[in-house]
């Protein structure tokens, strides 16, 4: 490194920055958005089904791709038009655009068209000396002007580099031209040194893999600051159809190439075996080929491959690993989530150790470090990690009595090594949702962090006092509902007032980088970080607590949030908004003289005391279930997804087993109360309903963003006939729950050190609650209201909301005001009838509950309220007869920043 001077790092970005430093795990590039790499993607682009093509990009990002490679080079496609169109669509999808883009084409005009529309700092794939120095320099200068990084193919006027010497020769020449003539930043150069197949039977191909590996080592040692990439699947091309051998070849190749300095590449995580899990005989044969260790290596692997051809992993119970040394057994149990033998193995380890604590610090942490490395590199997925945690907890539970006994005998003796740090986790006051928080706690716990979990609905005073008492290193806050955002802001202010130095993590479905940067970060001088998924938590906490580099990391965070804040506020100011008076003039207008209004078959309210849970199974939408486990993709396609399919299938099997147990043993209770009432719109934005208990009003909110001509400013009240029309209309409201029993079941699993099923039961209860809402809405449409009595929709059509009418819920985009839940509770007597309560932040308890309205008008639609002005808040407070400041507090997330 002294030869290279101070190390410079490759910096890329989508919406989020990526710094490829010495501590960064291998960067996995997704190639399924490449028409040459995916027949499905090619077909969708040809058929111009770009929305479906976007799903492929999304699946790659959700499946662990840190960069996505986009290639439109096909003879039947207008590559330039397709590249620009697809990139523009991606830029409008934050969940995809958050990662850097690799613009991949052999045609310069396509590359340049992509560079003109892509956001962030991308990678060009690729240029080379193939057409000579003049063109190479021209293209490099243009890429430098666009501010992109570049992949250089090991290709020159003579041809493609196919041995060690040619790879070095072309790389050195390319590097010298770029750095010395073009003044291209060395850290923005990535070499693709050509990965070719091995074991083809041709003698000249024997050294393909080892030549790449050694050339990689030479490039990283002699061409300062650059990176090395490649397409890994090429190496196993000779063994198409034999996945066990191909997976082993990819893992062995990567193991040695990464050690040599390869830091990024195109590799399918589903086609990788864990290096240490490759059977020793297969590993020996594969390494003989990859490293060219024997003259007969190819023949031996071909013969051996016949013995593993077509075999499927885990198809039969293989207990041969029980013959391995103790540490191997413990590590395998943790990696594979196998808990049957962990107690006997840790007992054997305890008897060999001087102190029981040494088993945790030694055997178990060795295994958990492997888990952490695999998860961090995208080779393990969240459900596997949670299973690993279950094994770890059972092991620790067995050891704890022995550790306590040791402490009594030697009260002054040291407990050994310290943990990696102490993290306080809490769901903020008034909020009851904790699945995401629990998952992050498990992931951090797997990486040797001590977790202080305060649970849900935790007041700020308790968070602060516990942080002081426990001397925690990090505080993590979670929240799902919008009032939780204000709680987080308040807590940040309190931490600043009390002169805290502890980093603050922000997470949960309602949180965002924008809210964290704009609202929370300015309140606290120390580190504030938005963590958008569990896989990032370990890296973030590690960076925050790294004493050698954390000040720089925190400084960069503060700078990033300040820039984001400035850009966000500038962007906000460009939008024009109407006064509430003007917005009402531009309301959505229905011709009520011809509108078809159906009188309900049954008005008033109804209670369902104890629904048979099995009735809800056909109504379950499984896609959000997988998302809660950080496995992204639509059900049922996710079960066969090439990246996460295996884990999704395993998770789904476990979910089905627990769900059937819930059904058979009636482990959860399902209750509902709902009602249909006469209603009319009054004063433009209010809905007045009458019941046998009197009259009530729902106050709705109206969009105030200035629209293009002919586009209305919606409010939910627009879908109910106005009183002055003298037409009687109707509205419904409801509350369902499947949460009774969830807390007790989760606590039972936790007492058994089974976080996996504790999280699983909460996720299933949430899915059942949403299914209950879907089931009840269908019943109302077909029977109680009867306006769609002949409706026959599949589960997929229900999920797509292909029915007439809508079911908006307070706290969601069309009606973000949670205060209206109070009116629903009053109208339906929810607490008295089914015992579902509202917290002080108006979250529902039990958490697995859903409430909302029913609108029947065929013109009713969902919309997002967006930002509103203070004049509407004042008007809302007046209509609701509440204090302006109180109204402002509840509507603050939607209030324009002034």
How are the SSEs ordered, and which strands pair?
Blueprint: E1 10-13, E2 17-20, E3 27-30, H1 39-46, H2 50-62, E4 67-71, H3 79-91, H4 94-97, E5 101-104, H5 108-117, E6 123-127, H6 133-146, E7 149-153, H7 164-181, E8 189-192, H8 208-222, E9 227-229, H9 243-260, E10 264-266, H10 280-290, H11 297-308, H12 326-336, H13 342-352, H14 357-376, H15 382-409, E11 421-427, H16 435-445, E12 449-453, H17 460-470, E13 474-478, H18 483-497, E14 504-507, H19 513-520, E15 528-530, H20 534-545, H21 550-573, H22 580-585, E16 604-608, H23 623-628, H24 645-665, E17 669-682, E18 686-691, E19 694-699, E20 729-740, H25 742-751, H26 755-784, H27 795-799, H28 820-828, H29 830-834, E21 837-838, E22 844-845, E23 849-854, H30 870-880, H31 884-891
Parallel strand pairs: 3-4, 3-10, 4-5, 5-6, 6-7, 7-8, 8-9, 11-12, 11-13, 13-14, 14-15
Antiparallel strand pairs: 1-2, 16-17, 17-18, 17-20, 18-19, 20-23, 21-22
Helix pairs in contact: 1-2, 3-5, 5-6, 7-8, 8-9, 9-10, 10-11, 12-13, 12-14, 12-15, 13-15, 14-15, 15-16, 16-20, 16-26, 19-21, 25-26, 30-31
Family: Belongs to the vitamin-B12 dependent methionine synthase family.
Protein name: Methionine synthase
InterPro entries: Cbl-bd_cap, Cobalamin-bd, Cobalamin-bd_sf, Dihydropteroate_synth-like_sf, Met_Synthase/Corrinoid, Met_synthase_B12-bd, MetH, Meth_synthase_dom
General description of the model:
The protein has 898 residues and is of the alpha/beta class. It has 31 helices and 23 strands. It has 4 domains: 12-307, TIM Barrel (Alpha-Beta Barrel), CATH 3.20.20; 320-407, Methionine synthase domain (Methyltransferase, Methionine Synthase (B12-binding Domains), Chain A, domain 1, Orthogonal Bundle); 421-571, Rossmann fold, CATH 3.40.50; 585-610 and 669-739 and 766-894, Vitamin B12-dependent methionine synthase, activation domain (Cobalamin-dependent Methionine Synthase, domain 1), CATH 3.10.196.10. The strands form 5 sheets. An 8-stranded parallel β-sheet has the order 9-8-7-6-5-4-3-10, covered by helices on one side. Helix 7 runs parallel beside helix 8 (208-222). It is globular. The two termini are 50 Å apart. Mean pLDDT is 88; it is low at 311-316.
């Amino acid at each position: 490194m002294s030869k290279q001077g101070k190390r410079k790092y490759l910096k890329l970005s989508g919406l989020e920055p990526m710094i490829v430093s010495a501590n960064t795990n291998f960067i996995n590039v997704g190639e399924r958005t490449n028409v040459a790499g995916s027949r499905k993607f090619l077909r969708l682009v040809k058929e111009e089904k770009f929305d479906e093509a976007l799903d492929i990009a999304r699946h790659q990002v959700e499946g662990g791709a840190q960069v996505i490679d986009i290639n439109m080079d096909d003879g039947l496609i207008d590559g330039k038009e397709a590249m620009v169109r697809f990139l523009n669509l991606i830029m409008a999808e934050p969940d995809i655009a958050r990662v850097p883009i690799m613009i991949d084409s052999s045609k310069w005009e396509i590359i340049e068209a992509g560079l003109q529309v892509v956001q962030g700092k991308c990678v060009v794939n690729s240029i080379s000396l193939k057409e000579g120095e003049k063109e190479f320099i021209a293209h490099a200068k243009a890429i430098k002007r666009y501010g992109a990084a570049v992949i250089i193919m090991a290709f020159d006027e003579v041809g493609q580099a196919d041995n060690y010497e040619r790879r070095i020769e072309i790389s050195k020449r390319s590097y010298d031209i770029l750095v010395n003539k073009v003044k291209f930043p060395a850290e923005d150069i990535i070499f693709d040194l050509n990965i070719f197949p091995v074991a083809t039977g041709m003698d000249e191909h024997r050294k393909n893999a080892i030549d790449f590996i050694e050339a990689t080592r030479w490039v990283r040692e002699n061409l300062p600051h650059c990176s090395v990439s490649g397409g890994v699947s090429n190496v196993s091309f000779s063994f198409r159809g034999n996945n066990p051998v191909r997976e082993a070849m990819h893992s062995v190749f990567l193991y040695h190439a990464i050690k040599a300095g390869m830091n990024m590449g195109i590799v399918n995580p589903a086609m990788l075996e864990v290096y240490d899990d490759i059977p020793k005989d297969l590993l020996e044969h594969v390494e003989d080929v990859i490293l060219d260790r024997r003259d007969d290596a190819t023949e031996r692997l071909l013969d051996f491959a016949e013995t593993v051809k077509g075999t499927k992993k885990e198809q039969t119970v293989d207990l041969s690993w029980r013959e391995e040394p103790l540490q191997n057994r413990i590590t395998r149990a943790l990696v594979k989530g196998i808990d049957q033998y962990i107690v006997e193995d840790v007992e054997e380890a305890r008897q060999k150790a001087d102190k029981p604590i040494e088993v945790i610090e030694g055997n178990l942490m060795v295994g958990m470090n492997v888990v952490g490395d695999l998860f961090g590199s995208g080779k393990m997925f969240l459900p596997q990690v949670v299973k690993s945690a279950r094994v770890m907890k059972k092991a620790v539970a067995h050891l704890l009595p022995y550790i306590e006994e040791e402490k009594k005998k030697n009260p002054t003796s040291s407990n050994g090594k310290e943990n990696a740090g102490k993290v306080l986790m809490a769901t903020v006051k008034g909020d009851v949702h904790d699945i995401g928080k629990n998952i992050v706690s498990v992931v951090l716990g797997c990486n040797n962090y001590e977790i202080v979990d305060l649970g849900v609905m935790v007041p700020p005073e308790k968070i602060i006092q516990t942080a002081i008492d426990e001397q925690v290193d990090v505080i993590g806050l979670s929240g799902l509902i919008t009032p939780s955002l204000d709680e987080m802001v308040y807590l940040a202010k309190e931490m600043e007032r009390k002169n805290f130095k502890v980093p603050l993590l922000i997470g949960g479905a309602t949180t965002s980088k924008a809210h964290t940067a704009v609202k929370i970060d300015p309140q606290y001088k120390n580190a504030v970080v938005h963590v958008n998924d569990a896989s990032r938590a370990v890296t973030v906490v590690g960076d925050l607590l790294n004493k050698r580099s954390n000040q720089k990391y925190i400084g960069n965070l503060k700078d990033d949030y300040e820039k984001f804040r400035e850009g966000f506020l500038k962007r906000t100011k460009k939008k024009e908004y109407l006064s509430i008076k003007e917005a009402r003039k531009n309301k959505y207008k229905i011709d009520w003289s011809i509108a078809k209004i159906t009188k309900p078959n049954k008005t008033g309210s109804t209670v369902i005391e104890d629904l048979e849970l099995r009735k809800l199974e056909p109504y379950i939408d499984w896609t959000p279930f997988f998302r809660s486990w950080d496995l992204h993709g639509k059900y049922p396609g996710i079960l066969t997804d090439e990246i996460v399919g295996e884990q999704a299938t395993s998770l789904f099997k476990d979910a089905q087993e627990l769900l059937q147990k819930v059904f058979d043993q009636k482990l959860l209770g399902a209750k509902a109360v709902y009602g249909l009432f006469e209603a009319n719109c009054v004063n433009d934005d209010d809905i007045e309903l009458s019941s046998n208990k009197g009259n009530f009003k729902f106050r709705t909110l109206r969009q105030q963003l200035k629209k293009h001509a002919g586009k209305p400013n919606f409010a939910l009240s627009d879908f109910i006939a106005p009183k002055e029309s003298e037409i009687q209309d109707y509205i419904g409201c409801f509350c369902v729950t499947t949460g009774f029993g969830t807390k007790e079941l989760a606590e039972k699993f936790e007492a058994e050190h089974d976080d996996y099923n504790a999280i699983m039961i909460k996720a299933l209860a949430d899915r059942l609650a949403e299914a209950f809402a879907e089931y009840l809405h269908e019943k109302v449409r077909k029977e109680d209201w009867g306006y769609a009595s002949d409706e026959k929709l599949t589960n997929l059509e229900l999920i797509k909301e292909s029915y007439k009418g809508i079911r908006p819920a307070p706290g969601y985009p069309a009606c973000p005001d949670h205060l209206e839940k109070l009116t629903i509770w009053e109208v339906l007597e929810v607490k008295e009838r089914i015992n579902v309560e509202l917290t002080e932040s108006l979250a529902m308890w039990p958490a697995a509950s859903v409430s909302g309205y029913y609108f029947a008008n065929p013109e009713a639609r969902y919309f997002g309220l967006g930002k509103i002005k203070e004049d509407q808040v004042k008007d809302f407070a007046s209509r609701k007869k509440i204090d302006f400041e109180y109204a402002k507090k509840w509507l603050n997330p939607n209030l324009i920043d002034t």
